[in-house]
Write a structure and sequence with these properties.
With 117 residues, this protein is an alpha+beta fold. The chain contains four helices and five strands, in the order ααββββααβ. The chain has one domain. InterPro entries: KTSC_dom.
Amino acid sequence: MKTRAIRYAAWTAWNSLARRVRALMRNRRDARAAATGSIVSLSEQRARMKPVTVKSALIDAVYFSQEDGRLRVCLNNGEERMFEGVAEAHVIAMVTSESPGKYYMQNVRTRFKRIAA
C-alpha cells in the first residue's frame, strides 16, 4: 500500500518538474524570438495573445487573441499548435469543460484551420 503512494508521489513530482521545464523552454524560445529581428511578426503576434489558465493532462498552456481569433495550444509533449478563426466561446468552453483535452480533440482540432506555429 505504501509503495503505491510513493509511486504516485514520485509520478506527480516528475510531471510537475516536466511541466516547469517545458514552460521555461517555451519562455526562452519566445524571448529568443523577440530578441532576433527576423521573427518580429511572430513575436509580436505572441505578445498580443493572452494566456488562459487550463488544467489538463493533454494541454500545458493556452493563449488566445481576441483581435484576430488566433488560438495557440501548447501540448504537454512540447508541441505547439496554432489555429485561426476561433471564437471566444469555443475557448471558454474548452477551458471550462470537464476534460479540456477531450474538448480540444473533438471540437477545436477538427473544426478550425491550423496555421504554422
